Amino acid sequence: MTNMDELAIFVKELEEQLVICIRCGLCQSVCPLFEQTGKEADVARGKLALLNGLMTRLFSDPDGVNKRLNKCLLCGSCAANCPSGVNVLEIFFKARTILTGYKGLSPVKKIIFKQALSNPKTFNTLMAWAGKFQKLLVKSNKTIQGTSCARFVSPLLFSRHFIPLANKPFHKSLTALKPGSTVSGIRVALFTGCLIDKILPNIAHASVKVLQHCNVNLIIPETQGCCGIPALASGDRKTFNTLLAHHAKLLQKQKFDYLVTACATCTSTIKKLWPSLYQGNENSLKKYLDNLSKKTMDINQFLVDVMHIGPYKTHEDDNSSETVTYHDPCHLKKSLGICVQPRQVITASGKYLKEMEDADKCCGMGGSFNLSHYDISTKIGKLKQKSIVETNCSTVASGCPACIMQISDMLSKTGSSIQVKHPIELYADSLL
Amino acid sequence: MKPALLKELQYITGKEYLFTDIEDRMTYSYDAAVLDPKIPCAVVMPGTDEELGKIVLLCNENNIPITVRGSGTNLSGGTIPEEKGIVLLTRRLNNIIEINEQDMYAVVQPGVVTAALAKAVEKIGLFYPPDPGSQAVSTLGGNVAENAGGLRGLKYGVTKDYIMGINFFDATGEYIKSGSKTVKCATGYNIAGLMAGSEGTLGIISEITLKLIPCPTCRTSMVAAYNSIEKASETVAAIIAGRIVPATLEILDNFTIRAVEDYSRAGLPVDAAALLLIEVDGHPAVVEEEGARVVTLCETMGASNIKVAANDQERDRIWSARRSALSALAKLKPTLVLEDATVPRSRIPDMVKALQQIAKDFQISIGTFGHAGDGNLHPTILTDKRDKKEWHRVELAIEQIFDKALEMGGTLSGEHGIGIAKVPFLKKETGFSSIEFSKRLRRALDPNGILNPGKITGV
Tell me: domain A170-223+237-306, CATH 1.10.10, correct? Predict the structure, then answer.
């Protein structure tokens, strides 16, 4: 049996999920990548056909399919609009795992995932070290979005205006937190997430401020790390499993009613991918993950649905309040159907919410897609930037740190004075 | 394909727009029809008319078949290419060249998406009625080539009724202009008309002039529920006999109703044997009068419940329920075969009965919904192609559906075209000499047989 035969057998495990696609092609109308390129291999129908091709041993090597499969934002727009209900993202994650298992991870990813990401403590130390040296390599753009760019031509950074590593990551300030009173009796554990911890710690500080204001009993489990999505997206199921097991063990020690996160991607990973992609045989752990999924909540949803903060009001005739527009992160709206609550948090902060055109259209970040296809990512991001600017807002809010980074890059490059914030930051600011 | 030819193609479109990797080519080997894929030897995406013309010329000189592809939503295999041929994508030819408000027409390139044109003209109070189910992605070039229909066929007609002119490259690469921007045009052959439904076999379209009409000012929608599908289909015949022409007159059978309700929770009565979804539009006074007459007719014909939409939200809910019918059915089984055999509208009750009998005889699941008002039902067969025995019964059932439709004076295809899927059945409807006439026409216009060979008339 040749290697391709073997691969075909692995891909055949996806057959029952693959046959659901009836090739109607409606995914073409919502795919942000296809909008730019018009290539069938870039849209879900084409990628599913390619996987079918692997299964029927059409190709002599898997490289071409692998390359095309990885050219995807994983935004889930196709899945959210699929008439037949094809579980596109789950298929893609599984297929990436199969192909990575077959091909092996790239050397760079191997070092990042296996030696750093899978061990939260090592990762923290490494990033602290990187934070000290970044000043030598990058310079501030002195823009309102707080971005930086490379001091010299860098193959990795291109012309990005990126938000640099924070001087002090959130987990370093943990000891300084005062324990909240427990008037409400609700126990909340906060899952910080890497981007918020290391790049946008203000979001975590705002979350803590708001949750303490709500009088919940707040716990922030130490040695928490990455939810595992970067590894999973690269097909590194092993690192994903290691991280999943680490967090399950960590969280099982704690007692809480809700696991709250301010990162759209972490929320959707914990809620959907942890239970559906857990590979072990431990029934008790499987049960625990299902239960954890039910207790996990986006912070906006928690504030509105559980804490019942301020009602949804539009201040159409109130010109005095600041105009804010909201960008729907794919991992909140398309994965979890959460779009009303973040808007309520914004209006509850006393802001005037003005909708942008196509608020739920992907910003083009797509995690590592932005690293590997910066040109297309930028083209998609520019559409978002245009929609934002057209609202004449002074702040754009979004419930996802990755979206915040992409939007900041786009706005900063045009010298825009629009700030980019998480709704929770706006709400925290509105509290005295 | 010879490397020298690929080089020439690359010279025409640039490297970025010529795809030769097997992985890219295989993604253009299928469309939405349930047929075997065929992988073309190259795929090109020209950006200008000039490039388009050069490609046709090059292919003709070298006997390379061309299959034009918009969004690949074809339901009869019309965009499945030849293995020795190329696929020509219209994706980059997607400009709305002109929307003329005074003379009420639009000039578009073939790659413009149907819904994009509809949205653009609606902004200025004009209306482009053809609305095929795939309008969110389908292209106007594809709509013309297939003579696509939609929900509004009964009152507003289909794509061919909106074609004023078409410019195209013939098989030898000559640029042919046809039709006019005038309402009337008696100048020579109606070549533009011939292009409608030609499925890419007579020329490669580069520019289409489409008729626009004023947007109706008023409309009202209603849902009538029935406890027998016969009563529902008899109502359809009665509405037409009553000289009322609704904009839309759709039927859903119980199987489809339950699938839609499971999927969309639109509040449809799941115990109803059939539903009619009806919309009348036009001048407010006419809408009011006709709407009332339709309600009375439904009552007299035995509707158990009639609900008129009180506002736009309720109206939208009715039509989004109808639009989700195919999606809802698609979720039930891996393979979905969407048929479009069409009968004269007065024969709808007979056709509905025949379909129920066929489902029973061949022991297969058929969901029936569709454009009852224009006789174009969509019997939708749910199956799993991997189940060989059942698939065989499905094939027999499809043939039976065709036979029944033809017996009633109907046609094989209302709006999906013949493509590859229905080639073997064409003789049943048109007879031998019509096929020969079509073949002679093709041979004369396309001596090397490069324009989408194998479609409509077979080889």
Answer: no
